[in-house]
Amino acid sequence: MIRVFVVDDEAPARDELKYLLEQMPDVSVVGMARNGREALELIPLAKPQVVFLDIQMPDLSGLAVARELLALMDEGDFPLLVFATAFDRHALEAFEVHALDYILKPFSAERLKNAMDHLRRTLAGRSPAQGPEAEKLDRILSLLEKPPRPKLAVEENERIILLNVDEIVYAWVEDRHVFVKTKDASYQTGYSLSELEERLGLLQTHKSYVVNRDQVREVIPWFNGTYNLVMADREKSQVPVSRTYVKSVRQALRL
Known about the structure:
- By secondary structure, the protein is α/β, with parallel strands linked by helices.
- The chain is built from 8 helices and 15 strands.
- A 5-stranded parallel β-sheet has the order 2-1-3-4-5, with helices on both faces.
């Protein structure tokens, strides 16, 4: 029997995964944990061969749990890890390269079957004393702990261009359309200013402007306690700071 342990902070997800796994005649679910701390207590005692480990948990992420388990468990007892993840395909490819696996929520019986087939083959070729390849696991964890840098889709001549966050100097609203400015060009985008603020971490300075705080080069005091921000684009554009946003801008720029 393949001894399996399930870690997920959501009870329905734990129960669903346990149910699907127990439909397989050669699988035994030997334990479940509701969070990362509980997982670190129970997994070394249960000594499962496989751990299904949720990445996003409120106390400790699945990635942090994996790192702690590397330090806690002997090499020969270290389980194979299957991450439940919402990471994009680029990051998921790294699991395949390093002989780990992943499943996406909501769980699919077919995907779970494929994952278990992969695990059976891996376990069959693993000697009793053989533990994880620690360097490989460390590399994959390091990769996944770096969140993917968001990109912004903009339009130019009926083409879609993807901009990195650090290319964007500021964005503004004009005639109900939102535009973003890089150092050398301007583009229209389908996002609202509030979406740019949330998605890219831009700073709102005015009802019609958000800026990349790393692209602010100069702060000019203006009328009635307001400011203009001189930006790092080629034109050295000046972006207004209205009275509504003076306090938050001062805090963000540490003025």
